[in-house]
Each structure stands twice: as C-alpha cells, then as structure tokens.
Amino acid sequence: MCSHQSSCPVTAADATTPHIVSAHPEQGWTLLCDGAIVFDDLGAVLPDGRIVAPHRVPADRLAVAA
Predict the structure, then answer these.
(1) Are 14 and 3 in contact (CB under 8 A)?
(2) 17 or 33, which is more confident?
(3) Does the global pTM surpass 0.85?
(4) What does the pLDDT look like over 5-17, one tens digit per residue?
(5) How far apart are CA 7 and CA 22, in angstroms?
(6) Helix, strand, or coil here: 12?
(7) Contact 37/31 with Cβ under 8 angstroms?
(8) Rounded-to-integer distance, Cα 59 and Cα 24, Å
(9) DSSP letter string, 8-65
(10) What is the mean predicted confidence (pLDDT) over 28-44?
C-alpha cells in the first residue's frame, strides 16, 4: 500500500488524498493507492476491512431527460 512517499505522485494540495491505482468503471469499482476499494454508488471497503455504506440517490430524485 502507498504511504505517499515515493509510490505515487503527490502535490502539497493533495498530500492526504489517495490516488487511483486501477479503475474498472465497467465493473463499478476503483482501487485506490491506500488499498481502499470505492464503488460507483459511493460505498467502499477500507484497507482495515471496515465498510462504508452506499450513498444511493432515491430514484425519484434522479434527473430524467425529457
């Protein structure tokens, strides 16, 4: 896992922000350099095994094309 020392490029503005290591939008997930897996519904599995519940938008609040 990345500790932002030499594993990935970091600027002063984003020194604590993990970077994308592998993106799989067709499968709905992204692996970050800190080991977290983030899903398209904004849920996540953190490196320590904790789970972040999805933040789904209710269907009635979705934008609909006319």
Answers:
(1) no
(2) 33
(3) no
(4) 445 555 555 556 7
(5) 14
(6) helix
(7) yes
(8) 24
(9) S---GGGTTS--EEEEETTTTEEEETTS-EEETTS-EE-TTS-EEPP-PPPGGGS---
(10) 88
